[in-house]
Design goal:
The protein is mainly alpha-helical and about 60 residues long. Helix content is about 80%, strand content about 0%. It has helices at about 5-30, 35-64. Helix 1 runs antiparallel to helix 2 (about 35-64). The longest helix is centred in the last third of the chain and has 27 residues, at about 35-64. The radius of gyration is 14 Å and the shape is elongated. The two termini are about 25 Å apart. Keywords: Membrane, Transmembrane, Transmembrane helix.
Length: about 60
């Protein structure tokens, strides 16, 4: 894991959870016409995005 503290890992997990929950809400709103694989795709895509955002936040906080 590229992070040494638990807060960064928890922040990544929180970002993935929120993205997946949002995809589930949208899927329920649009009905059964949308493939449930959308949730899997959102969860998989949100992992590297969340890691990049947390790394950017830590770098920004360290530079101040």
């Amino acid at each position: 894991m590229p992070f040494k503290d638990r807060s960064a890992v928890l922040l990544v997990l929180l970002c993935v959870f929120v993205a997946t929950f949002g995809a589930q809400v949208l899927l329920n709103y649009y009905g059964p016409g949308v493939s449930p694989w959308v949730i899997v795709a959102v969860a998989v895509a949100s992992v590297p995005v969340s890691i990049a955002l947390v790394a950017w936040k830590r770098r920004r906080d360290r530079d101040e």
